[in-house]
Design brief:
575 residues, mainly alpha, Growth Hormone, Chain: A, 23 helices, 72% helix
Length: 575
């Protein structure tokens, strides 16, 4: 093999990553946790309804689809996380009041111990459903497309709303937990397919994804708006009426699926780039059947083929940009990968191998703990600050502030999160996360009103940042080929561990006599230890990856230089 051939082999290896390579080609993210056995690392399935290029659908219709997707996410995707706003309403109408002891009822407590535990379990099981169901929903999405997900989401939301409304109407029917489970499941079916609408306008896909994510955070405000309506109407707008009225949301989504939304997905940017390269190939104007035609007919047919090809190329250039825009986009992507410092660390390895590495284990430990902390705080914020401030009035005000900040913070933080993901190394981003989680743990343990407001603000900024950073870490370290399995496993484990939240509630009440500070201190300490271990590991491995990358680049440059010298020598000898 000549040196030129060896250089060609190296370049091909860079395009198609080998086992453990630090370089990788761009892939379409798949959420499928169960890829076929004959292609264990290939996430892309042939859907029942094939994807279509966005230019085949009018701009106005695609714009309407994006707007409706954002609206559906806002109304349905994460409403169960507005539990802190709904809980006072549930307490006000006496949900699970029958669990209170006669002594507690005589004392006139606002919410008794067993009632509080059951209400918090009501939220914990819904949060777990959101996380665990992502595995199944991702598989359905990849194999059967977004429409089936939307239909299943509508069915789940309808079942959840009916169960919740019936539970309020029928005193002997406890449909609260199952109702909330179906609302959570429906939200996942609506949310997960929403990211693919970004391919409707590939040039603005980043902004669309950020908007969809912001809509998910904002969906927590649905229960906030209801609580305001409940209090304004002095209880006349009952939960039963609200949940029956909420049936309009799945009905709206169902109608839109058959009027506005497309049956299948839009082609992704890599798929469109392949079509673009084919459209630039002038040899496509020539067919083998031309030999059977006379010269005049051949010229006419080739002219028609050229016009069709150039028309398609113009549409594609308008949709995703020409070669200069592609080069600029690739350069930006390469710079982002270089900034991360860990891009391609485990690309090319199987999901099972990746899950045995510290990259996965440390991230999973940190994520499981942080999700448990976040959901514990959402469920118990009012009880925590009622104890620490010694004032029911201040606790109610802090709870109300949190109800507003939870959706607003997610939306407001979106631009800053995008900047951090693109401009800061993964190790630095993890340092920011560890610093924030530790600061929240410290401030959240201070028995002052000002500390409570600071804690709420930090929490509402951390939550969207953590979710975004976790998925960003997964794509950079593990790669797109195994993203669905690895990311889904992390989310699923986090959801299962969240079932221990009622046990933490019980420990707070029974062991620490309603004092949340010891639990917060324990969780903060564990989070700091796990976070510090992950940061140190990423820093060390990042240096190793950069060193290996530099060696590969140096070797490739040397071989190219030798090949050029050999080529010049052969050319001069031939002359």
């Amino acid at each position: 093999m000549s040196l030129i051939q060896r250089v060609s082999t190296i370049e091909q290896t860079d395009r198609e990553p080998a086992y453990g390579s630090v370089k990788s080609i761009r892939r379409v993210i798949s959420y499928d946790a169960f890829p076929p056995r004959d292609e264990p690392f290939e996430p892309v399935h042939v859907p029942i309804v094939p994807a279509v290029p966005a230019y085949k659908v009018s701009t106005s219709k695609r714009l309407a689809q994006v707007c409706f997707t954002v609206l559906a996410c806002w109304l349905a995707s994460g409403i169960v996380f507005g539990f802190a706003a709904l809980k006072p309403v549930l307490v006000s109408v006496g949900v699970y009041r029958e669990l209170c002891s006669s002594k507690e009822l005589q004392a006139g407590v606002e919410v008794c111990y067993q009632q509080d535990l059951r209400l918090n379990f009501f939220f914990a099981i819904a949060s777990t459903t959101c996380n665990v169901s992502a595995l199944a929903v991702g598989t359905i999405l990849d194999r059967y497309g977004p429409r089936l997900c939307a239909l299943l989401g509508c069915a789940s939301l309808t079942a959840g709303a009916i169960l919740m409304a019936s539970a309020f109407r029928l005193p002997d029917f406890d449909g609260f937990v199952m109702g909330n489970v179906f609302l959570a499941l429906g939200g996942t079916f609506i949310f997960l397919p929403s990211f693919q609408i970004a391919n409707a306008f590939p040039k603005y896909s980043g902004s669309i994804v950020a908007t969809v994510t912001g809509a998910f955070d904002a969906s927590a405000a649905v229960f906030l708006f209801y609580r305001i309506a409940f209090e304004t109407s002095k209880g006349a707008f009952t939960p039963e009426k609200f949940f029956f009225a909420y049936l309009a949301v799945p009905a709206l989504i169902l109608v839109a699926q058959f009027t506005v939304m497309s049956h299948g997905n839009y082609k992704s940017i890599p798929e469109l780039e392949q079509k673009q390269e084919k459209a630039r190939d002038v040899t496509k104007d020539v067919h083998s059947s031309d030999d059977e035609l006379d010269d005049r007919e051949v010229r006419r047919m080739r002219g028609r083929r050229r016009e069709h090809r150039e028309s398609k190329l113009a549409e594609l250039d308008k949709l995703i940009g020409d070669r200069r825009e592609k080069a600029r986009r690739d350069q930006q992507e390469a710079e982002r990968h270089a900034v991360s410092g860990v891009w391609g660390a485990l690309h090319g390895k199987s999901a099972s191998e990746q899950m045995l590495t510290p990259w996965f284990i440390l991230l999973t430990l940190l994520t499981v703990l942080q999700m448990l902390r976040m959901n514990y705080f959402i469920a118990t914020i009012r009880a925590q600050y009622e104890y620490m401030t010694g004032s029911e009035h201040f606790a109610r005000q802090i709870n109300a502030f949190f109800d507003i900040m939870l959706p607003v913070g997610g939306v407001a933080a979106t631009p800053a999160i995008g900047y951090l993901l693109d401009s800061v190394s993964t190790a630095a981003l993890l340092c920011i996360l560890v610093a924030l989680t530790t600061a929240i743990g410290i401030v959240g343990s201070l028995p002052f009103v000002w500390a409570a407001y600071v804690n709420v603000v930090l929490f509402c900024l951390l939550r969207p940042l953590y979710y975004s950073a976790m998925s960003d870490y997964a794509t950079k370290v593990f790669g797109f080929q195994t993203f669905g399995t690895v990311y889904g496993a992390i989310i699923c484990l986090s959801g299962l561990v969240n079932l221990f939240q009622p046990a933490i509630d019980a420990a707070t009440h029974d062991v620490f006599h309603d004092n949340p500070i010891p639990i917060n201190a324990i969780l903060t300490s564990l989070g700091f230890v796990f976070g510090l271990m992950l940061v140190m590991y990423v820093i060390v491995q990042g240096r190793r990856i950069r060193s290996l990358q530099a060696e590969q680049d140096e070797t490739a440059s040397l071989l190219v230089s030798i090949a050029e010298d050999e080529s010049e020598y052969e050319y001069s000898t031939f002359r």
